[in-house]
Design brief:
single chain, mainly alpha, MetI-like fold, 72% helix
C-alpha cells in the first residue's frame, strides 16, 4: 500500500492534479457531496421521511436567515413540513446511488459489446455496431423513458414501486452503453493484431481468455474517463426522470423529485423548496464533470 501511494505521488497524473486548482476544488466538492450523502442518517438535522416526526404546521417555513424562519430548519421546509436540508442530504444518496450503479451497468454492457465486436469482427461486429448506431440516434432520456414505460406496462403498479430504483438504473444504463462500446471496439481492433495476441493464439490460448486476460486490460484506458463524464449525465438523467414523475417513487425522493415538488410552489413565493435542491444538483454534476475533463486531459499523452 505504501509503495502504491509513493508511486502515485511521483506520477504525472498527481503532478497534473496538484497544478490545477479547479480540479482540486472539484475533487473536494465531489468528496464532500459523497461523504455527506452517505452519512446523511448521522448528520441530517431531521429524518424527512419519518412520518411520525412531520408536522403540517411547520410547512412552508422559509430559510433561517429570512423573516419568520427558524434555526431548526436552516434551508426552510416544504409543503409537508419536511426539512429541506435533510431532504437534500437524503435525496442526494438516491441520486448518487442511481448514477454510480447506472454507470457501472452501462460500462459493463458497453465494454463487453465493444470487446466482442472488435475482437471477433465480421458479422458480429456489423450487427452489434448497427444496434449501437440505431440507439445513438435516439436521445438517452427517450430510451430511458421507453424502458421504464415497458416495465410499467408489464408489471403491476405495486410491483413496479418495489423495483422502481432497479428499473431506473437499468433504463439509464441501457441508454448509455453505446458510449462505452465504440471506443472499446476501436481499441480492441488495434490490439487484436499485435504480437502478444498472435503469440497467445499460436500457443493455443482460447479466444475468451485472450479477450479477458490480454486485450481487456489494454483497452480500459478510455473507459475510466468516459465513466467519470457519464456519471454526471446519469445523475442528470435520473433527475430528469424523477422530475417527470417516472423515476424513483415518492417514498424515496431524489434531488429530481424534490425539484419537481418545489416547482409547484415556485411562483407562489416558496422559492427555497426547489432552488436549494437545484443548486445541490448543479454543484454535484459540475464537480464530477470538471474531474472528468481533467482526467481526459491528464491521460492524453499528446497534451503532456
Amino acid at each position: 500500500m505504501a509503495n502504491a501511494l509513493a508511486r502515485l505521488r511521483d506520477s504525472d497524473i498527481w503532478w497534473s492534479f496538484k497544478r490545477s486548482p479547479i480540479t482540486v476544488l472539484s475533487a473536494i466538492v465531489a468528496l464532500v457531496c459523497i461523504v455527506t450523502s452517505v452519512a446523511a442518517p448521522l448528520i441530517a438535522p431531521h429524518n424527512p421521511f419519518d412520518l411520525a416526526t412531520l408536522n403540517l404546521l411547520d410547512a412552508f417555513k422559509p430559510p433561517a436567515w429570512v423573516a419568520e424562519g427558524e434555526a431548526d430548519y436552516l434551508l426552510g421546509t416544504d409543503d409537508q413540513g419536511r426539512d429541506v436540508l435533510s431532504a437534500i442530504l437524503y435525496g442526494a444518496r438516491i441520486s448518487l446511488l442511481v448514477g454510480f450503479a447506472a454507470t457501472i451497468f452501462a460500462a459493463f454492457v458497453g465494454v463487453s459489446v465493444g470487446l466482442l465486436a472488435g475482437f471477433l469482427g465480421g458479422t458480429v461486429d456489423a450487427l452489434l455496431m448497427r444496434i449501437a448506431d440505431i440507439q445513438l440516434t435516439f436521445p438517452s432520456i427517450l430510451v430511458a423513458l421507453l424502458v421504464d414505460g415497458i416495465v410499467r406496462a408489464a408489471v403491476a403498479r405495486e410491483v413496479h414501486d418495489q423495483i422502481a430504483l432497479f428499473v431506473v438504473i437499468v433504463a439509464i444504463g441501457i441508454s448509455e452503453w453505446p458510449k462505452f462500446a465504440r471506443p472499446v471496439r476501436g481499441s480492441t481492433m488495434v490490439e487484436r493484431n499485435k504480437e502478444y495476441v498472435l503469440a497467445a493464439r499460436v500457443i493455443g490460448v482460447s479466444s475468451f481468455r485472450i479477450m479477458t486476460g490480454h486485450v481487456l486490460p489494454n483497452v480500459l484506458g478510455p473507459v475510466l474517463v468516459i465513466a467519470t463524464l457519464n456519471l454526471g449525465l446519469a445523475i442528470l438523467s435520473e433527475a430528469t426522470l424523477s422530475f417527470l414523475g417516472v423515476g424513483v417513487p415518492p417514498t424515496q425522493p431524489s434531488l429530481g423529485t424534490l425539484i419537481r415538488i418545489g416547482n409547484d410552489f415556485l411562483f407562489s413565493g416558496e422559492w427555497w423548496i426547489t432552488i436549494f435542491p437545484g443548486i445541490a444538483l448543479v454543484v454535484m454534476v459540475l464537480s464530477v464533470n470538471l474531474l472528468g475533463d481533467w482526467l481526459r486531459d491528464a491521460l492524453n499523452p499528446r497534451l503532456r
